[in-house]
Amino acid sequence: MTKYLIFTWLLLCGTSVVQAQKYRLSDSEVSFYSDAPLEDIEAYNAEAKSIFDAETGEIAFVVPIKKFEFKKALMQEHFNENYLESDQYPNAKFEGKLKNFNSDKTVQEVVASGKLSIHGVTRQIEVPGTVRQHPSGFEMKATFPVKVADYDIKIPKMVFYNIAEEVEVRVNFQYQPYDP
Asked: What whole-number distance in Å separates Cα of residue 59 and Cα of residue 51?
């Protein structure tokens, strides 16, 4: 009887450990900053969705383009209609894996390697970032450049001095255990 109880307890613990290896976003912030000669542009988005597997290091996220908020409504309109064409390309997506991720470390530097899709163009990228493990999950932060031309985002010559050729993207994700 005792062996049966121990086996059942280990099985239940093993099951919860396996389930605890997958995490989903509980809070997110994705922002970008464009430093141009005439005008700085900054936008925020708190509507990203993501899944992270702490056992394999695999990560995937989706960012709805229309949910980026700008200080000026006209900037937001031009961003969606003229540059990102968000009706045609509604989401930015990333699928990849955290290289050198170790679930036993509390704080670590990692590199996310995978495919980033923006504006209908998919490119292989590597992004350095930081992962902090908390009792309730993980926090991931990364800052990386994105060249708008790499994703076939055309900037008209008339506004060339308003929009930088390369924008700085910042990601801050908070994950909690996912129990489907």
From this structure: 6
Are 86 and 80 spatial neighbours (Cβ–Cβ below 8 Å)? yes
User: Hunting for tokens 């809070």 — which residue is that?
Assistant: 27
- What confidence tens digit (pLDDT) does each residue in 134-147 have? 999 999 999 999 99
Could you say which DSSP state residue 16 is in? H
- 124 CB contacts (<8 Å, ≥6 apart)? 113, 114, 115
Q: Give pLDDT tens digits for 26-35.
A: 999 999 998 8
By C-alpha distance, which of 125, 137, 170 is closest to 52? 137
Residue pair 66/86 in contact (Cβ under 8 Å)? The answer is: yes
Distance, in Å, from the CA atom of 142 to the CA atom of 50, rounded to the nearest integer, reads 15
Calculate the alpha carbon distances from 90 to 76, 138, 154 in Å: 14, 27, 17
